[in-house]
């Protein structure tokens, strides 16, 4: 009752500005976030002889109860999804293949190894996205894959990426929504390179080979993800921002921006409008870098709101494919998903509850005083009341109530895993 009352009051406040709440909630409900499965098991995967996590990324923490197999991971994901308003997607990596304990090389993976995932996705009515895994593998042990000087190693990873795109195609066909298959590679050098061009030429050639296999965009969309540095690749990363932005634009691929892959004061929010002038699509890995590409859980901070504002005020919700990418093993892993995803949705709602046309006009007229004044006042408008109402309407717990569900699940399910 209190929720409804607060909502009605809040609605009036926004309606004074011509903001139609019904329309806003309708639009919000259409947004599908791609939730990364790898938060559930610390990016380990289920390969028969899984290697240690490599590639210059790292997960810290040892909170009990991580998923030990695909079944547990799906069960955990389902639980988390039940606490997040709306219909979302799940993002898989090649290392989440199910091979019945049999060793299947990554360049031999087939759609059938993801059949259980597809059946599950059908059952709960969601779409799937995909990523080839070019790390945690003996052929990536020296931190080079698609740009490796050894043609045999390049070949192996090229084939893995082609296989991955076919798996994406299979997801798209089966689930009736195109799969975004995103290529991220760790390639780089710890120390200052004597040649930056040659590895980049090789990466370009490898990508050309991977994409020479035509796949209908109705089923599979291709993205490439850039990076600035990693652990062990502090001085040079082959697939940098300029490299992939250029590649994507020239080859009609989707560029993927990860919020943790830039200089600490450089923001992804400021890049969205520029890229959308030259590309009709853009993909995101929303993450949270803390001093480095640390992949902390997404919080409701200034940059998250700014990203949401850039998507909403530029009418780009249908152009930007929003995915998440964080992995924290020091807290309950389901809670991490719920916190991060609810924050992403919350930020979009926040962004939808602003008089963008009015604010744009103020800027056009040079009225920067009022622009700043109104933008600041909106920060404390009663948007929480609209959010609470939305959660209730979508049949998910309101405010921190969801945590009780997680605590119960931890007690009944997670603590029983050894
Ligand atoms: C690494 C990239 C990449 C990975 C996942 C696991 O820096 O962000 O997206 O986090 O593919
Ligand atoms: Zn990423």
Summary keywords:
three-stranded parallel β-sheet, five-stranded parallel β-sheet, 418 residues, binds zinc ion, TIM Barrel, L-rhamnose isomerase, binds L-rhamnitol, Rhamnose_isomerase, alpha/beta, 44% helix, 14 helices, globular
Reading the helices and strands in chain order gives HHEHEHEHEEHEEHEHEHEHHHHH
CATH architecture classification name of the largest domain: Alpha-Beta Barrel
Helical content, roughly? 40-55%
What is the CATH superfamily label of the largest domain? Divalent-metal-dependent TIM barrel enzymes
Mean pLDDT: 98
Shape descriptor reads: globular
GO molecular function: L-rhamnose isomerase activity; manganese ion binding
Keywords: Cytoplasm, Isomerase, Manganese, Metal-binding, Rhamnose metabolism
Cofactor: Mn(2+)
Pathway: Carbohydrate degradation; L-rhamnose degradation; glycerone phosphate from L-rhamnose: step 1/3
Summed up:
The chain has 418 residues and is an alpha/beta fold. The chain is 44% helix and 9% strand. Helix 5 runs parallel beside helix 6 and helix 11 packs antiparallel against helix 12.
Structural notes for this entry:
The chain has about 425 residues and is α/β, with parallel strands linked by helices. About 45% of the residues lie in helices and about 10% in strands. Strands 4-6-8-9-10 form a five-stranded parallel beta sheet. It has a three-stranded parallel beta sheet with strand order 1-2-3. The chain has a two-stranded antiparallel ribbon with strand order 5-7. β9, α9 and β10 form a beta-alpha-beta unit. The longest helix has 25 residues. The site of L-rhamnitol has 11 residues, from loops. One of its GO terms (molecular function) is manganese ion binding. Keywords: Cytoplasm, Isomerase, Manganese, Metal-binding, Rhamnose metabolism. Pathway: Carbohydrate degradation; L-rhamnose degradation; glycerone phosphate from L-rhamnose: step 1/3. It catalyses: L-rhamnopyranose = L-rhamnulose.
């Amino acid at each position: 009752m209190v929720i409804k009352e607060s909502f009605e009051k809040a609605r009036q406040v926004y309606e004074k500005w011509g903001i139609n709440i019904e329309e806003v909630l309708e639009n919000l409900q259409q947004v599908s976030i791609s939730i990364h499965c790898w938060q559930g098991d610390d990016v380990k995967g289920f390969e028969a002889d899984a290697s240690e996590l490599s590639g210059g990324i790292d997960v810290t923490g040892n909170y009990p109860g991580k998923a030990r197999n695909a079944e547990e991971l799906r069960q955990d994901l389902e639980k988390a999804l039940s606490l997040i308003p709306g219909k979302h997607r799940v993002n898989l990596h090649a290392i989440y293949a199910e091979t019945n304990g049999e060793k299947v090389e990554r360049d031999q993976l087939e759609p059938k190894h993801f059949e259980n995932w597809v059946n599950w996705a059908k059952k709960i009515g969601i779409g799937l996205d995909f990523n080839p895994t070019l790390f945690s593998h003996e052929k990536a042990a020296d931190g080079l894959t698609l740009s490796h000087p050894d043609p045999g190693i390049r070949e192996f990873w090229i084939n893995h990426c082609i296989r991955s795109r076919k798996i994406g195609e299979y997801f798209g066909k089966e689930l009736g929504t195109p799969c975004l298959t995103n290529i991220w590679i760790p390639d780089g050098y710890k120390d200052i390179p004597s040649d930056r061009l040659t590895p980049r030429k090789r990466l370009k050639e490898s990508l050309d080979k991977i994409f020479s296999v035509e796949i209908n965009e109705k089923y599979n969309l291709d993205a490439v993800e850039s990076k600035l540095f990693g652990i062990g690749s502090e001085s040079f990363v082959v697939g940098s921002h300029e490299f992939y932005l250029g590649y994507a634009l020239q080859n009609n691929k989707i560029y993927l921006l990860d919020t943790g892959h830039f200089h600490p004061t450089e923001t992804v929010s400021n890049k969205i409008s520029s890229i959308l002038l030259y590309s009709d699509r853009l993909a995101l890995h929303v993450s949270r870098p803390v001093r480095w590409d640390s992949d902390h859980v997404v919080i409701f901070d200034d940059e998250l709101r700014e990203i949401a504002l850039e998507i909403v005020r530029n009418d780009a919700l249908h152009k930007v494919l929003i995915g998440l990418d964080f992995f924290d093993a020091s807290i309950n892993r389901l809670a991490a998903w719920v916190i991060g995803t609810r924050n992403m949705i919350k930020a979009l709602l926040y962004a939808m509850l602003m008089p963008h046309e009015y604010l744009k006009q103020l800027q056009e007229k040079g009225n920067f005083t009022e622009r700043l004044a109104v933008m600041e006042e909106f920060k404390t408008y009663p948007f929480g009341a609209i959010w609470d109402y939305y959660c209730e309407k979508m049949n998910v717990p309101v405010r921190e109530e969801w945590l009780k569900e997680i605590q119960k699940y931890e007690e009944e399910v997670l603590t029983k895993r050894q």
